[in-house]
Amino acid sequence: MKPVQIAVIGTGSISSFHLASYKNNPNANIYAVCDLNEERAKQAAEKYGAAKVYTDYRELLADPVIEAVSICTWNNTHAEISIAALEAGKHVLVEKPLCRTVEEALRVQEAVKASGKLLQVGFVRRYDSNAQLLRAMADRGEFGEIYFAKASTIRRLGNPGGWFADIERSGGGPLIDIGVHVIDLCWYMMGRPKPVSVSANTYRKLGNRSNVRHLSFYQAADYDANKNTVEDMANALIRFENGASLLVDVSFTLHAKSNEGAVKLYGEKGGFEIDPETVIVTEQNDTILNVYPQTDNKGFHFDGAFQNEINHFLDCVSNGTTPLSPVEDGVEIMKILIAIYESAAKGAEVRL
Ligand SMILES: NC(=O)c1ccc[n+]([C@@H]2O[C@H](COP(=O)([O-])OP(=O)(O)OC[C@H]3O[C@@H](n4cnc5c(N)ncnc54)[C@H](O)[C@@H]3O)[C@@H](O)[C@H]2O)c1
């Protein structure tokens, strides 16, 4: 099989996971990279052996050698670059979130349909092997109907600054950046029920807390603490058509005693936790059992999930199959995220 000719657009932090995973897959050739920051693009090209370096994604997309692209840029460019790539006849793997608004998401969906090319949304949590194990068990009905889920991603200090904190470029704060992962993960595990209403709150109380000393935290490639126009924290209750509900809380900063990641789902026949570690809760012989599956990793394995995501994208490109995280799911998740922001702004429940 001839390797798929790949280009990676945006060579900041997350691109290294895409590039390393493509590099590991013999079915891919990293042909080109692109970044507004030429030096950054050149460094990535050198490290991963890309033949071409671009600073303008339009020029990159005009290159007929390229068959598929990973889009690892700021959120405000996801829709624009995805649409241009599809129109140029390239397959697309776009980082989460799909984009910033429902309107943008629908335009991307239209472009997928019109182009006949595939678009995979980078909902990397779905591709973790523990998540796949649990999804397979849910498919077999082992948990019965999943009617309640709780998802928490609390950073006590972790506003990455730069574009992440600039609502124009990010579309929002912790909700759209890290909340998107756990909302999608729960929704996927619940069998993708139709959302019908959202009641939510967002807060801007603490700022980015760039004053805090003695505790380091993740910062964007172009860290800048001067601008912060996003929420510090968000919480939401999402109701689904089948009566199921999802409770979420996420923060970039909060007076919490530690960071916290919890993803828990509850069904009629059993429950399970994904974060902080995989555990299945069930009942046998009138006895409650907490079962710890013996798998390679107790919790989410970042590198492995990225490798699976990239392998899956390459398989879909080669075989013409629909990705596990198609554009339709990106659109649905955007509807939920935007409804959360709308509900918080109105101070009232929003119907979808
Ligand atoms: N899946 C995950 O777990 C995960 C984790 C982190 C980030 N992300 C997503 O990946 C994307 C990038 O995040 P990051 O942390 O790598 O940010 P980053 O700031 O480290 O890198 C982004 C890069 O994109 C470049 N860029 C921006 N607009 C561009 C354009 N029009 N053309 C070419 N280059 C452009 C910037 O110069 C920068 O080098 C975001 O959408 C983010 O939500 C996903």
TrEMBL record:
Residues 139-351 form the Gfo/Idh/MocA-like oxidoreductase C-terminal domain. Gene3D superfamilies: Dihydrodipicolinate Reductase, domain 2, NAD(P)-binding Rossmann-like Domain. InterPro entries: Gfo/Idh/MocA-like_OxRdtase_C (IPR004104), Gfo/Idh/MocA-like_OxRdtase_N (IPR000683), Gfo/Idh/MocA_Oxidoreductase (IPR052515), NAD(P)-bd_dom_sf (IPR036291). It comes from Paenibacillus prosopidis. Belongs to the Gfo/Idh/MocA family. This is Putative dehydrogenase. Residues 5-123 form the Gfo/Idh/MocA-like oxidoreductase N-terminal domain. One of its GO terms (molecular function) is nucleotide binding. It comes from the Bacteria.
